[in-house]
Amino acid sequence: MDIQLAVGENIHRIRKSQKLSIDRLAELSGVSKSMLGQMERGTVNPTISVLSKVARGLHVPLEMLTEKREEMDTTLYRGVDVPGQRLCGGKVIRYPLVPFDTDSRSESAQFDIFISGSYEATDLIPGTRVYLTALSGLLEVETDGQTFRMENRDSLVFPGSRPYRYVNKGNNTVRLIQRIYYKK
What we know:
This protein is 26% helix and 33% strand. By secondary structure, it is an alpha+beta fold. The strands form 2 sheets. The protein has a 6-stranded antiparallel beta sheet with strand order 1-2-3-10-5-8, with no helix packed on it. A 4-stranded antiparallel beta sheet has the order 4-9-6-7, with no helix packed on it. The two termini are 23 Å apart.
C-alpha cells in the first residue's frame, strides 16, 4: 500500500472514530479543510510538520498516522489440532486458542480447572494485562493482594506482571478464557 493512501486511511479512520468532522479537525489542527480532504484521499504528500499538526489535533502519536495496515487473512485455529497441556498435577488443563499474534500483541487460552484444583502463574511479564472471563463454575482469583470471586460470564482485568492464582471453589469444573496483551 502506498504511504500516502495509508496516511489518508489512518486520518479518516481515526477522525471518524472520534466523531470529528473535517471542519472540526481543521480547527483543532490548524490544517486547512482542503488539505485534510486531499490527505484523506491520498492525493497529496504532506510534510512531517503538517502530519504533526494533524496528529496533535487528533491527540494521537504521529506513528499512528504513518503506519501501514494490511488486511489480515481469516485464520481458523482448530481445537483438535492443539492438545491441551496438563498442569498442576493434572488438576488443570490449558488449551491454547489463538497463538501469539504480532498485530494485536496478544494470545488466548482456555483453562479447565477441576474440583479442588488451582493454577498459579509462573510467567510474570512486565507490561502485560490479563483479561479473564469465567465461562462456568465458581472461580476465585487472587492477585495484587486481593481476592475476586467469579461466576458465569464475569470478567476481570489485571496486570500480568504481578503474581496471580486461579482456584476452583465449587463442586464443578471451572472453565475460563484468558487473553494476555503484551505491551509494545
